[in-house]
Structure formats: C-alpha cells, structure tokens
Specification:
- The protein has 358 residues and is α/β, with parallel strands linked by helices.
- It has a domain of 81 residues.
- It is built from eleven helices and twelve strands.
- The strands form two sheets. An eight-stranded mixed β-sheet has the order 6-7-8-3-9-10-12-11, sandwiched between helices. It has a four-stranded antiparallel β-sheet with strand order 2-1-4-5, with helices on one face.
- It is globular.
- The two termini are 42 Å apart.
- The relative contact order is 0.13.
C-alpha cells in the first residue's frame, strides 16, 4: 500500500453472479482490493478464477446473464489531477460508486475509455474488421474530447508513433487484419491511451504474443506509466510478468482474493497454500535436470459444484481436517499490509453454524 495516498479505485466485497438456466455461477464472490495512482496491481490466478469478470465489473460491461449484485467500486478524484471526463462524471463529488451507475448512462460512458480504459487479451476481437484502425481511434478521441477530425487524426498518428508502430500515418488507414499480432496489440494500447486514462486495465495483454514482442509491450506499458502517471490493473497468469511489473498483487481463486500484498511479500513470503503452489510450479533455471515440475493437484471445481468450506481445500496439501471443509476463512492480516484467507493463521476463523458444531 502507498502511505499517505488515497486509492484511485477501491473495490469492496464485490459480487458479480451469472444466472443461466442451469443455476447460479458466483464468478466474483466478495472481492476486495485497492489500486493507487501511478502504481500497478497484478491480479493472478488460474483460468476461471474470476479475474476478467472483475475487470468487466469495474467497467460495467458484464455480459448477460451476469450482473453485479453487491459491493462497491469507489472511483476517486486524485489530488492535483485535472481530467474533463472524471469531472463530468463526478461533478462536485470527490468520489463515485460505479456499482450504482447505469452501465449505459452518459456518466459511465464518460468514465469508460476516458477515465478507465481496457486492453483485451485478443485485439482481433476489439477492432471492427470493416473500419480502419485510425477511424476507430479517432472516434474514441472525438467522443471524449472536443477536437476537430483533423486534430483527432493528428493525435491518433502521434499515439501510433508513441507505441512504436512504424510508418504510423500509413498504418492509420489500414484494417486490423492487415497488422501483425504485435502491431495490433500496440494499436489497441494506443486506442486505450488515446484520452489519457487514470487507470488502464490490461487483461492478459501479452498472452497471445511471442516472448520478444511480449517484452517490448511490457516495456512500453512501463514507459507510458512513468510518462502519464496512470495506474495499471494487470491481469495475467504469468507470475514472471507480475514480478517484473507489479507493485501489489491480488491472488484470486474461485471468485475470491485469497492473498493480497506487496509484490515482495507475495514472492518471498507467500502465506496461502494456493499462492505457494503457484510459485512452486514456475520453471527455474536452478532446478535439477530431469526432475518433474511441481503441479497443483486437481483442477478448479465446476461452477455448479463448488466445495463447501474453504474453496481450495480439495486441492490443498495443508488441509486441517474438520475445519477447512466446514467453514470458509476470511482475509486477515499476516503481516504489514499483507492479507491471506487461510485457517493456518489466527484471525481467519469464522464461527461455525450451530448445526455444524454438534
């Protein structure tokens, strides 16, 4: 956490559920974290843990039949920062709960793209194939800024150059399918940054790229963050990327944050068995040759067959019999600004229902 600084965004006990005919899917089930100005929060976990749904909940773009049913997403106006979109959305208020906004309201549309931008995992699904890349970036700029089409075009060319796209003026008039994967990703970053957002949500921004292009994109994000002072919420399953980029880390499992803290605490003093298992499964050049890499036993439970008690206990090597399968632990302090939800640590206990104590 950043001493003396208010969070730009505070998520508190966020719950986003899906309601298909088969039953209820608790995709995000009580998530809490903070994102500070100019800092990067890494959100990690296996596929199906609720990372992307959390990001979509923040932006108000959860698809039917999902909806956010509880919690708060508090957006604050940072001190000393002038932002037209944020002022238009907040008015005279210093903070706003995004959960209470209509996702299609003008307020939310001003925030989405102008204050909080999103980079998707696959840029091909983000760009329209029937409009040029330039037209789509220009449209975003003109929606959020009172500029002429010529000024918006010049801004778009400047952005493409800024993200390292060669021959930017010519590329502006090309379609997304004419660009390579790395150039498409850069173009999508340019569009996300077109209105100088306060928060950039990057959902697996480098997963589909080769390692060389991946390193270039991460360097670009870091450079742009230093220039613009924006916050980043980096969603990834790649712990190496998190170690390189993040200031704080939220580890998610089955819709919940099971550990949360500074990046050094998470990587050098992990407390939750799930976090430890993730770290142990990372390949290392120091590992002995021909030794099997440790893996996490089992798999994430089906949404309709969630385990009782601690959601990780069927896969955990440190399960406490008679406790972990009967009650769910709560996030508790295990160090300075370091939280974990595990019965191995005092304070995680919650009272059992009366019928469970008999």
């Amino acid at each position: 956490m950043t001493a003396g600084t208010e969070p730009l965004l505070s998520v508190r006990d966020l719950k986003t559920y899906f309601y298909p005919d088969e039953g209820i899917v608790r995709a995000v089930d009580g998530v809490t974290f903070d994102i500070f100005p100019g800092k990067t929060l890494g959100v990690v976990g296996e596929s199906g843990c609720g990372k992307s749904v959390t990001a979509r909940s923040i932006l108000g773009i959860v698809e039917h039949p999902g909806r956010t049913i509880a919690g708060e997403i508090i957006l604050r106006h940072p001190e000393g920062r002038d932002d037209a979109d944020l002022e238009a959305a907040l008015g005279r208020a210093r903070e706003l709960d995004l959960v209470r906004l209509d996702s299609e309201s003008r307020q939310m549309r001003m925030i989405r793209g102008g204050v909080i931008s999103l980079i998707f995992q696959e840029p091909m699904t983000s760009f329209s194939p029937v409009h040029t890349v330039g037209n789509q970036i220009i449209e975003v700029i003109r929606y959020h800024r009172r500029v002429s089409k010529r000024e918006a075009r010049d801004r778009a060319i400047e952005l493409l150059r800024q993200v390292g796209i060669p021959r930017a003026e010519a590329r502006l008039d090309e379609y997304s399918f004419q660009l390579s994967g790395g150039l498409r990703q850069r173009a999508m970053i340019a569009m996300a940054l077109s209105c100088d957002p306060l928060l950039l949500v990057a959902d697996e921004p480098t997963t589909a790229l080769d390692v060389t292009t991946q390193a270039q994109i991460l360097d670009l994000l870091r450079e742009l963050q230093e220039q613009n002072g924006m916050a980043i919420m980096l969603i990834t399953h790649n712990l190496g990327v998190v170690a390189e980029m993040a200031d704080e880390v939220a580890v998610m499992y089955l819709g919940k944050v099971v550990e949360y803290g500074a990046v050094d605490d998470i990587f050098h003093n992990a407390k939750h068995p799930y976090t430890r298992a993730l770290l142990e499964s990372i390949p290392s050049i120091r590992a002995e040759p021909r030794v099997r890499l440790p893996t996490i036993s089992g798999s994430i439970p089906h949404p309709y067959n969630r385990p009782s008690g601690c959601p990780f206990h069927p896969r955990c090597s440190r399960t406490i019999a008679g406790t972990c399968e009967r009650a769910e632990p709560v996030l508790t302090k295990v160090g300075t600004d370091h939280l974990a939800s595990c019965f191995l640590y005092p304070g995680s206990e919650v009272p059992l229902p009366a019928e469970s104590r008999t």
